[in-house]
TrEMBL record:
It is an enzyme of class 2 (transferase). The lineage of its organism: Bacteria, Pseudomonadati, Bacteroidota, Flavobacteriia, Flavobacteriales. It catalyses: D-fructose 6-phosphate + L-glutamine = D-glucosamine 6-phosphate + L-glutamate. Its main location: cytoplasm. It is found in: Cytoplasm. One of its GO terms (molecular function) is glutamine-fructose-6-phosphate transaminase (isomerizing) activity. Homodimer. Residues 43-182, 216-357 form the SIS domain. The chain holds residues 251 to 617 of 617 of the full protein. The active site is at residue 362. Its EC number is 2.6.1.16. This is Glutamine--fructose-6-phosphate aminotransferase [isomerizing].
Length: 367
């Protein structure tokens, strides 16, 4: 049932070309220039008249939500707030019937996310679910929603569910933006054509980085700390990369927006600190170059995720992982793949139980 892979996690990482494709199936109709999503379309007035969208989630799903904020604000120009479900529910939040609350949950059973949704519903908000598990509790309580259709995710560390969540959020952002006129037709058409080709990009990344990342992982088996940095869309991708590593390898890892480095974490950098930096061409590249220079000057070990043909960051990096160039909004999907592999191989070399890491459960049904 692991399809010849040693672990479910690796199988699920390699399934992503297919799972992302499945998420888009029947929804993204490139030739017709249409995104079909009944859950959105049937309630389009709610989204159109929303004062703001609040995204609530936990863990990896919360990271997807942060990227959703970048997507929806950029393309649909609707204000978005992203909250940990656990914080939202306990702080007497201000919610009105003009709010749309979107819950993101792979399992659809996370207790905090469920409770936060109930609260939002009581206060009159329209509640929307992005779940992977069909007919789960969250899918049932919400007014409407979109399933991610990534297929069953067995590994406790979320991988294909995350990229499927990003795909749904991208579809929602483009659909709302097209509808409310913030995303012009020409841009819409070129973005959806690019989205349609993302499964192929993921396939390319898996093929071109798997062995390389496996080699890189060997050098970090005894490392005790890691930093992950990114900017813009790739700041949440950095958080997610760090979470993957800590969950399955038990190495302490922190994600930061690269510009925040100088406000504290830079004090940690010396020759023993590996820093994973996500630095695609589109996305504040020049700013990232100066961050990398600062790290280099302090002898940090740089593992750079860059676009093919990159020179500036690559010249300073100790390890270079190349991914194809995409529009900025798609780069977290593509960049996450080698980071999943990096966490996976480091954990395997450390002899950890990657599919069932200690202390963790696949769905957190307790508060
Ligand atoms: O099922 P959910 O998406 O609601 O789960 C949320 C988190 O518990 C989950 O993403 C957790 O952080 C994963 N172990 C991440 O790999």
């Amino acid at each position: 049932e692991k399809g010849g892979y040693e672990h479910f996690m690796l199988k699920e990482i390699f399934e992503q070309p297919k799972s992302v494709h499945d998420t888009m199936r029947g929804r993204l109709l490139v030739d017709e220039g249409v995104i079909k999503m009944a859950g959105i379309w049937d309630h389009i007035e709610k989204f159109k008249n929303a004062n703001r969208i609040i995204i609530i989630a936990c863990g990896t799903s919360w990271h997807a939500g942060l990227i959703g904020e970048y997507l929806i604000e950029e393309y649909a120009r609707i204000p978005v707030e992203v909250e940990y479900a656990s914080e939202f529910r306990y702080r007497n939040p201000i919610i009105t019937d003009k709010d749309v609350v979107i819950a993101i949950s792979q399992s659809g059973e996370t207790a905090d996310t469920m409770a936060a949704l109930k609260l939002a519903k009581e206060k009159g908000a329209f509640i929307y679910g992005i779940c992977n598990v069909v007919d789960s509790s969250i899918a049932r309580i919400t007014d409407a929603g979109s399933y991610t259709h990534a297929g069953p995710e067995i590994g406790v560390a979320s991988t294909k569910a995350f990229t499927a969540q990003l795909t749904i959020l991208t579809l929602i952002a483009f659909k709302l933006g097209k509808h409310n006129g913030n995303l012009g037709n020409a841009d819409f058409m070129s973005l959806i054509a690019e989205l349609d080709a993302i499964p192929k990009r993921i396939e390319d990344v898996l093929a071109s980085t798997n062995e390389l990342v496996q080699d890189i992982a060997k050098d970090f088996v005894s490392t005790t700390n890691f930093l992950y940095l990114g900017r813009g869309y790739n700041y949440p991708a950095a958080l997610e990369g760090a979470l993957k590593l800590k969950e399955i390898s038990y190495i302490h890892a922190e994600g930061y927006p690269a510009a925040e480095m100088k406000h504290g974490p830079i004090a940690l950098i010396d020759e023993n600190m590996p820093i994973v930096i996500i630095a695609p061409k589109k996305g504040h590249y020049d700013k990232i170059v100066s961050n990398v220079q600062e790290i280099k000057a302090r002898k940090g070990k740089i593992i750079a995720v860059v676009n093919k043909g990159d020179t500036q960051v690559s010249a300073m990096a100790d390890y270079v992982i190349e991914i194809p160039e995409t529009s900025e909004c798609f780069s977290p999907i593509v960049a996450s793949v080698p980071l999943q592999l990096l966490a996976y191989y480091i954990a395997v070399y450390r002899g950890a139980n990657v599919d069932q890491p200690r202390n963790l459960a696949k769905s957190v049904t307790v508060e």
